[in-house]
Amino acid sequence: MPAALAEVVSDFKEVEGQDKLQLLLEFANELPPLPADLEEAAMEPVPECQSPLFLHVDADDRAHVRLYFSAPAEAPTTRGFAAILAAGLDDLPADEILAVPDDFYSELGLAKLISPLRLRGMSAMLTRIKKRLR
Q1: CATH number at residue 57
Q2: If DSSP codes are grouped into helix, strand and coil, which group holds residue 45?
Q3: Which domain holds residue 27?
Q4: What positions belong to coiled-coil segments (predicted)?
Q5: How many domains, in total, are found in the chain?
Q6: What are the pLDDT digits (tens) for 53-65?
């Protein structure tokens, strides 16, 4: 697992119960805005997510893959998941992103707090990122 993503996982392991949800909300508030030249309409939808989520994978430079996400403020769980992926994977080499375990999110310890359907949304985001990189 890339160091930045391992650090995020470690942050979640350090807190218990409802504090994990609070940490997820903090991530949601830190989701980077889209660059001015990228419009949501040009991004790929992730229909597996419970709330509208769009992503864009810029792999022109495979040594520095850029990840962009758009999710409404009214969808803090989805925004939180996107922000975790952005914090843990943005600007990494494609090979490192492709090597991330598909179920890494299980290590966040959110399964007792968030529905399996919502957790599958995070899995779908990672799957789509990897598909674009392949």
Answers
A1: 3.90.1010.10
A2: strand
A3: 3-33+42-133
A4: none
A5: 1
A6: 999 999 999 999 9
